[in-house]
């Protein structure tokens, strides 16, 4: 059984790396597939770690090096699941600076390697005695109980993903995929919880590992790698919708003034983290209704609508005296953009020239 399990881990690792490469270099759903590729890569690294632990003839130097390599990185799973869901519901979605804060808890995953490095470094400089027992005990105990925040993190982001999907009317193929995607991880969370409860009880930890080892967790992880990779690659580029039903005049009359008020009076566009969900909560209109009005009545995507206000704010700023005290990036950030490349791309698409060219032209007109 052990040989079969280790062979399965090896095959899962190889398949995982192949899937990562295919997703990263896929020409469709590029951003979404890269997020999915990173998620599969992290799962694959955990499977690789399990495989290496099962190799009995692994050279000692390799085993020593593995003590300092964080192959089990689980805290980003939850954010990656959530942001992948968002990228499927909104093809224009990109991670903002505030979104990246969701990945900060990854430090919890590297504590064992940091402790091992501190111990070895302390021995080298003569700070610690050669007694690894208390250090190993701390690492083993930490590894057991760190699974609790890991499980809680994934569960929280799965809940957020489910709530996010409630506000969208996706095409049949994407809706089916999102249900499968979140359903697979929900099933895994239930399985992990059943395993986790006895695992964190000191009297039962060793008994559990002796009885079933890590089979109930890592065999499903290998299956998830296969499933996510294949399904993600097969997902069509965009939603294939039938001709949308005409919008009701009453809906247009309600939503358009609220959108203008949110931008022109409340100036929500200055928030770089603004998304469809936040706008929906602010004006108390469902996201799918906002999208319908933007797409069918105003002929704009959500990002195009918001960025038009940000670009107008930029134009106004560069027409005022003293704007030279700020860089273009500084002006863009003040107007609600979260990065210079995003601003430059949006500005050129909307205005037909770069920000520098616009400022130069504006200076010539004033002269």
UniProtKB/TrEMBL annotation:
Domain of life of the source: Bacteria
Keyword check for Membrane: yes
Keyword entries, A-Z: DNA-binding, Membrane, Transcription, Transcription regulation, Transmembrane, Transmembrane helix
Entry-linked InterPro entries: Homeodomain-like_sf, HTH_AraC
Transmembrane segments: 6-25, 32-52, 64-85, 106-128, 177-197, 217-234
HTH araC/xylS-type domain mapped to chain residues: 253-361
Claim: NADP is one of the keywords in the record: no
PROSITE patterns: HTH_ARAC_FAMILY_2 (PS01124)
Molecular functions per Gene Ontology: DNA-binding transcription factor activity; sequence-specific DNA binding
Name of the protein in question: AraC-type DNA-binding protein
Organism the protein comes from: Chitinophaga sancti
């Amino acid at each position: 059984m052990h040989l079969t399990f280790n062979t399965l881990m090896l095959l899962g690792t190889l398949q995982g790396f192949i899937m990562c490469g295919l997703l990263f270099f896929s020409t469709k759903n590029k951003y979404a597939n890269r997020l999915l590729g990173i998620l599969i890569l992290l799962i694959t690294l955990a499977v690789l770690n399990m495989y290496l632990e099962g190799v009995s003839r692994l050279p000692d130097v390799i085993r020593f090096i593995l003590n300092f390599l964080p192959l089990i990185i689980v805290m980003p799973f939850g954010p990656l699941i959530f942001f992948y869901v968002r990228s499927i519901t909104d093809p224009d979605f990109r991670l903002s600076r505030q979104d990246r804060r969701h990945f900060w808890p990854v430090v919890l995953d590297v504590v064992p390697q940091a402790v091992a490095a501190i111990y070895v470094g302390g021995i080298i400089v003569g700070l610690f005695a050669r007694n690894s027992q208390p250090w190993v005990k701390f690492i083993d105990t930490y590894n057991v109980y760190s699974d609790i925040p890991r499980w809680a993190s994934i569960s929280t982001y799965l809940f957020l993903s489910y709530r996010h999907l409630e506000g969208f009317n996706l095409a049949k193929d994407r809706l089916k995929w999102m249900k499968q995607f979140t359903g697979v991880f929900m099933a895994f969370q239930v399985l992990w919880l059943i395993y986790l409860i006895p695992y964190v009880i000191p009297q039962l930890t060793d008994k559990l590992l002796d009885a079933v080892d890590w089979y109930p967790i890592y065999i499903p992880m290998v299956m998830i790698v296969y499933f996510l990779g294949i399904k993600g690659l097969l997902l069509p580029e965009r939603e294939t919708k039938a001709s949308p039903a005409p919008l009701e005049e009453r809906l247009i009359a309600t939503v358009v003034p609220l959108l203008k008020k949110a931008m022109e009076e409340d100036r929500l566009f200055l928030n770089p983290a603004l998304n469809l969900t936040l706008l929906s909560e602010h004006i108390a209109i469902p996201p799918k209704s906002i999208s319908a009005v933007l797409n069918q009545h105003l002929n704009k995507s959500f990002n195009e609508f918001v960025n038009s206000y940000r670009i107008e704010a930029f134009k106004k700023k560069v027409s005022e005296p003293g704007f030279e005290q700020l860089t273009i990036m500084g002006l863009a950030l003040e107007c609600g953009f979260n990065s210079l490349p995003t601003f430059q791309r949006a500005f050129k698409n909307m205005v037909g020239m770069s920000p520098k060219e616009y400022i130069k032209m504006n200076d010539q007109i004033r002269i």
